[in-house]
Amino acid sequence: MREIAVFSGSAHPELAAEVCAHLGVPLNPVRVNRFANDCLEVQLQANCRERDVFLIQPLVTPVQENLVELLLMCDAARGASASRITVVMPHYAYARSDKKDAPRISIGGRLVADLLVTSGASRALTLTLHSPQVHGFFSVPVDHLHALRELAQHFRRYDLSNTTVVSPDLGNAKEAAAFARLLGAKVAAGAKQRFADDRVSISSVIGDIADRDVIVLDDEIAKGSTVLELLDRLRELGARSIRVACTHGLFSAGALKRLADQPDVLEIVCTNTVPIPIEHRTDKLRVLSIAPALAEAVRRIHNGESVSALFDAP
User: Fold this and answer.
1) Residue 48: is its pLDDT beyond 70?
2) Which of 71, 155, 197, 252 is the most exposed place for a label (fewest CB within 10 A)?
3) Which burial class, exposed, middle or buried, applies to 308 when counting CB atoms under 10 A from its CB (0-12, 13-18, 19+)?
4) Environment class of residue 240 by beta-carbon count within 10 Å: exposed (0-12), middle (13-18) or buried (19+)?
5) Selected catalytic residue, list 192, 223, 257, 284
6) What digits encode the pLDDT tens for the residues 35-46?
7) Mean pLDDT estimate for the chain
C-alpha cells in the first residue's frame, strides 16, 4: 500500500495509530500551529502528491477546534496535489443537527458536510450517524459503517436466551432490531419525548421486559439523561438485569459516573470512536476497538473493493 498516506488530527491520535498498525502503514506527522490572533495553521509533513490521502479526525470536544483543524487538513492535502482525500470521521457530532424542528434554526449537519466538500474532501468514511438521512447531506460518496458486529461479539459471551434489546426511542428502533437479530434476542423500544437537550420523558416501553435480561442500545450517550430515564421505566417493568451499550461513548458532564453508580447496571459498553480519558473510566466500562473495521474499510476504499460487503461477512 505504497500510495496511501494517512494523517491524524489532534482529536484521537491513538485510534489513528491503531488503524495504521492494522493497515501496516505509518501514521504521518501533522504540525498544528496557533498564531497570536488564535488562528490555526496545519502542515501535513509527508508527501501527498498523487496519493490516496486519509485524514482521521472524529468531531469531539472541542468540536469547533477539531472541525477547523480537519478543514485545514483537507485544504492542505488538496493544495499538495493529493489524488483523493477521504475524511475518516468515526464520530460526526453535527449529525444531531439534522432537521428544522424550530423556526429560523440552522441545520449544522448539512452545513458542515458542505464545508468538508468545499475544503477538498473527495469522500467520507463515518460510523453510526445519529440519523440515516445525514448520509444524504454529503455531495460526495459516503461509507457509513456501524459497530453492531463488534458489540454483538462482546455480548455473545453471555447467556442470551432470556434477553431483550431495548432502544430508548422509536428513532433508534431499527438499529436495535438489527442488533437483536444478531443476538437472537427480542426487541423493545421506549416512547420518548424530548423537552430540552438534557430533559426527556419516556412514558412507556413497548415490548417484553418483565424478568428479562435487558441490553439498552443507543447510538451515543452524551449526558446520559435518556438512559437514566429509561432505567426508571425498566425497573418499574421488572427487568432482571441491565447492561448499557452504545457506539459513541461521549459521557459528558459526569454521565459515565452517574450510569456506573446505578447498582442494577452491570456493564457499560462502547467503542473507541471517541477518546475516553483513563481517569474518567470505571470498573463497569468496557471499550471495544473499532480500529480493525476502520482499517479494513480504508483498505477496501483504497483498493476499489466493496465496503458494504463488510456487513455481509459471517
Assistant:
1) yes
2) 197
3) exposed
4) middle
5) 192
6) 999 999 999 999
7) 94
The values of phi and psi at residue 169, to 5°, are: -150, 170
SS3 188: strand
| Three-class DSSP category at 204 | strand
Q: 305: closest CA among 77, 140, 143?
A: 143
Contact 266, 284 (CB under 8 A): yes
Length of the chain as a residue count:
314
d(CA 211, CA 112): 45
What integer is the mean pLDDT of 83-111? 94
Tell me, yes or no, if 186 is annotated catalytic. no
Q: What is the pTM of this model?
A: 0.94
Which residues does residue 165 pair with via DSSP β-bridges, in sequence order? 187, 215
Mean pLDDT of all residues in 21-33: 97
Q: Can you say whether the dihedral through the CA atoms of 102, 217, 171, 169 is positive or negative?
A: negative
CA distance 220 to 222: 6
Give per-residue pLDDT as tens, 152-187.
Answer: 999 999 999 999 999 999 888 999 999 999 999 999
The residue type at 83 = S
